[in-house]
TrEMBL record:
<dbReference type="InterPro" id="IPR043129">
    <property type="entry name" value="ATPase_NBD"/>
</dbReference>
<protein>
    <submittedName>
        <fullName>ROK family protein</fullName>
    </submittedName>
</protein>
<dbReference type="InterPro" id="IPR000600">
    <property type="entry name" value="ROK"/>
</dbReference>
<comment type="similarity">
    <text>Belongs to the ROK (NagC/XylR) family.</text>
</comment>
<dbReference type="Pfam" id="PF00480">
    <property type="entry name" value="ROK"/>
</dbReference>
Amino acid sequence: MQPLYLCADIGGTRIKTALLTADGQLAGPIFHQDARAALAREALLDHIAACLLAPVQAAPGKRPCGVRLAMPGPCDYDAGICKIEGLGKYAALYNVDLCAALGRRLAPALGSAAAGLRLQNDVAAFALGELRFGCAQGCARGLFVCIGTGCGSAFTLGSALAPEGTPGMPPGGYLYPLPLRGKRVDDWVSRRGLQTLSAQTLGEALDGLALAQRAGDGDAGAQAVWRDFGTLLAEALTPALDAYRPQLCCLGGQVTASAPLFLAPLADACRARGIALACTQDTSLRAMQGTLPA
């Protein structure tokens, strides 16, 4: 029997958890729960641990041999220490040793498996999941971008993440802090960016779901917001496309469900450069798969 891993994609809005086999197959459903990322430290740790245990409690006969978390940064991933601050999420976990704090909470239910808890950057895990199990299999050079509460990015070279200093890759593989129209990429290519654009055009700050519903109902203003968002996305990624010359540009995150409303400018930019463009259907599954031992 394949060994099982308890895997999680910890986002700013939702926490997704599931049991996966070592070869990336789901051994049960994916559980979706509110992140409650603004809670105080102890309550937040208790909540994350409860989210993690949901797949195990739903399948008492299945015992994981380890725990793998895809976690937004910044973190010291090797040490398992959260370094998030000033991002409006998980601020209470700053400088917390997540491996130790969550391991203690999970140990009564998981035993020695709780000591095998490991962290991976969420977008890096998404990229590795696509390389091993998804659309990027066999891709020599890839650019992966997740659009959610912020704009996460990862660059791959061969079957691994591109090492620091790889020509054409920004420091750390991070696109989010780069300048774009007087702000940062993160301020435009994100949920915040959609809210800013909708406030400018419609007079109210709307998220992607509300904008997609309005656009689908024929609201010209909402459709214009999506077109502006697509233009900003293309402007944000084009320098990386030119500098890194990936074979594939792959987008993830909930906003990709609305890709037909905004993707045209980036599709044109990729087509002009001979770069394949893909949108992931289940970013969380790919991120969880990417945390598994290679």
